[in-house]
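User: For a teaching handout, I'd like to show students what a predicted protein-ligand complex looks like in token form. I'll give you the sequence and the SMILES for zinc ion. Please answer with just the structure.
Assistant: Understood, here is the input followed by the structure.
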Amino acid sequence: MSRRVVGREPDAASSGRGAGARNASADFTVRFWGVRGTVPCPGSATMRYGGNTACVEMRCGGQQLIFDAGSGLRQLGREMAASGEPAHAHLFFTHTHMDHVIGLPFFRPAYDRRNHFQFWSGNLSGQGRRLEEVLEQLMQTPFFPVPLDIMRASIAFHDFTPGERIEPGDGVIVLTAALNHPGGAVAYRVEFGGRSACYVTDTEHVPGKPDSSVLDLIHDADLVIYDATYTDEEFERFRSWGHSTWQEGVRLCEQARARRLVAFHHDPEHDDEALDRIAAELEHRLPGSQVAREGVMIVL
Ligand SMILES: [Zn+2]
Ligand SMILES: [Zn+2]
């Protein structure tokens, strides 16, 4: 099977309409709305790769899957609202640290009663918490002026256990695995039409001991989006902070025979020039790989 990975600017991207000869019902696309970790970092030094925090959209035929609700979610919401079409989407949280939820209160489609969402979380149930309750705490005074239940869309909340398999519909399969992160986090593998893309962020590796559950999850995958907050050189200074390196991503992909890596969750201290240097080294180490950049869409 031939596979191609291309980057496109969002304005040139097709969401299935006007896609020419392409069969929209079989399209599998991955689009980056926010690629940073920790905190949004707009500014001239981060303009090219983008300053918004984690938000990735996958379209599998007619299914819309959103991963994390970082500040990048706001822009995705603007585009969804502008389409005028009612939304039926799944929103998967890796976990609820601030950089992964801060966009939710500003996600315009959540306030439209025509829309339907399924929210999924896997790291809270083991701590006796529920996603809905945690998001209620996010949206309450004095942190935010209006409560969660002001959202008029229909929202179903699901708390699952890492390792569970989720079937959103239309033949899409989502596999899950626990990650090594303070408070826990969950990795996802999406399979559709014989292709696969993994979203593995907010995890700390142990040098020399590849994480076996990540290796299992990403085995033979076409694309792996991975926590590349640090470089190997920086990593020692940040042990126990819960993050990994692009070099560990390469090692995992090589061992699991995954084809392409996307370095993701960039440290706010990594400006565009630092990311250019990583991109060049990454392309050399694992050809076809790339550093995540806001606005880029990958077609699997
Ligand atoms: Zn994070
Ligand atoms: Zn985190």
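For the handout, you might add this sentence: The helical segments are 73-83, 98-101, 131-138, 212-218, 232-235, 246-256, 272-285.
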